[in-house]
Amino acid sequence: MLQTKSPSSRVEEPAISDPRTNDRIRVPEVRLVGPSGEQVGVVPIDTALRLAADADLDLVEVAPNSKPPVAKIMDFGKYKYEAAQKQKEARRNQANTVLKEVRFRLKIDKHDYETKTKRAIGFLEQGDKVKAMILFRGREQSRPEMGVRLLQQFAEAVAEFGVVESTPRIDGRNMVMVIAPHKNKSEAKAEQNARRAEEKATRKAEKSSDE
Length: 211
Fold this sequence. Notes:
Strand order of the largest sheet: 2-1-4-3
CATH class of the largest domain: Alpha Beta
CATH topology of the largest domain: Translation Initiation Factor IF3
Radius of gyration: 28 Å
Shape: elongated
Distance between the termini: 87 Å
């Protein structure tokens, strides 16, 4: 006769997106990975559950579509917490990304173009997106291909620092294109801090050698 848990002993229901754990893994055998990442091999599910219980840890199905499924012995609560922290950090990086704008004229002179390109590179190095906009005047609107060429030229000039996220498109009297940085905010900030630390150490070493 099956025994059912009383409502008072009911545990929190797992989220649909959660991997199967412990007695929710209903397969005859699994390819088991130990708590330190060691490969145990293919074992019956009862053996895997016993080993997890002996270690006071959980058995978590990490690759359900493998033949047989891969399961790992781990602290599932800690795993979920770390995964949530990573998602939170990713959302914060996304929220911190700012859309900067640089504006061009179709008949822009070389110096002005180079100045605005350098400014855009600075934005991308900081982890921000760049919205490049061409402002058409009068009859220039009948020559959209010239705007596309200018924006493509710009995209090539900043390719080392960013990639085209939104290709050139007409937006009212203007043409716009969006460039996304290769590095997110946190990566860009970490690099900037590392450069500053290196420069500080270099200055300190030079000062010491002069004394």
